[in-house]
């Protein structure tokens, strides 16, 4: 009997642990421009963490605020989302403070109607930009950031409606991050929109993974995996693989830059770690 128990114990130790499921948020976009890259980052973080997790997308489509509320209430509907950080969001849910976008969520170029290109080619200051109306989602941190800098913003509670509103002339431009704009432009090619080629609107921001405050082990595992990926250059390599040619194509270093303040940026943002942030020409 004793030998049988020893053999059974040894077998259990050798049997691989069943992977824990991570359910991540399904966003509103028909073709989510961040999804391929962010899921690749999540899979990299899992591999580097050394813990067996199996990620899958949620069945239910949610706006950002709904996903964050599910995590805040720890309902179990989702385990993880990714979104721009803010002080309020970090009070309510648990951030993993590695900017998976390397800060580019705050580097914005304008989607606009073709006939507006000449107008925006003449913009050379924040004051000049204030003449035009931007469009954003009602629950995105970008909305109060833009407004706090004196910019006019119209909002919608439906992501796809913003493209229709832009095409219909309800507002003048839709500021989109460098990691989103090309996919969004291609997905709405029939609307006659253009990517403005001369201007960059920039504010300090970070795209993080967020989990429930009751799921600290998941946060610790993913943070460990991401930090290991950064130390070994794997996150930077994945970023370059997805966005290197795009950033050259968008001529980031050749654009006129309008710098904005971000009053929502938490003081814990790891700005002192240069290896986490994108720098043109690196």
TrEMBL record:
Keywords: Signal
Signal sequence coordinates: 1-19
UniProt keyword Signal present: yes
Top-rank lineage group of the source organism: Bacteria
Name assigned to this protein: Extracellular solute-binding protein, family 3
């Amino acid at each position: 009997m004793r030998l049988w128990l020893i053999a059974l114990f040894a077998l259990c130790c050798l049997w691989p642990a069943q992977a824990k499921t991570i359910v991540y948020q399904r966003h509103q976009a028909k073709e989510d421009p961040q999804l391929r890259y962010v899921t690749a980052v999540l899979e990299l973080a899992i591999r580097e963490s050394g813990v067996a997790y199996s990620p899958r997308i949620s069945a239910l489509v949610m706006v950002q605020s709904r996903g964050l509320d599910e995590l805040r209430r720890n309902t179990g509907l989702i385990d993880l989302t990714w979104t721009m950080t803010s002080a309020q969001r970090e009070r309510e849910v648990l951030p993993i403070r590695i900017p998976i976008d390397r800060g580019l969520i705050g580097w914005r170029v304008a989607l606009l109607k073709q006939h507006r290109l000449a107008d925006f080619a003449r913009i050379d200051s924040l004051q000049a930009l204030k003449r035009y109306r931007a469009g954003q989602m009602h629950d995105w941190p970008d909305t109060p950031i833009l407004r706090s800098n004196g910019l006019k913003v119209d909002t919608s509670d439906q992501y796809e409606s913003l493209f229709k509103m832009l095409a219909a002339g309800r507002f003048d431009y839709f500021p989109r991050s460098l990691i989103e704009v090309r996919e969004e432009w291609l997905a709405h090619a029939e609307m006659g929109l253009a990517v403005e080629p001369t201007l960059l609107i920039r504010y300090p921001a970070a795209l993080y993974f967020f989990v429930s405050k009751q799921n600290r082990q998941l946060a610790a595992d993913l943070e460990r995996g991401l930090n290991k990926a950064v130390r070994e250059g794997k996150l930077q390599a994945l970023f370059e693989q997805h966005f290197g040619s795009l950033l050259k194509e968008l001529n980031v270093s050749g654009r006129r830059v309008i710098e904005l303040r971000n009053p929502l940026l938490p003081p814990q943002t790891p700005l002192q770690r240069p290896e986490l942030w994108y720098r043109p020409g690196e």
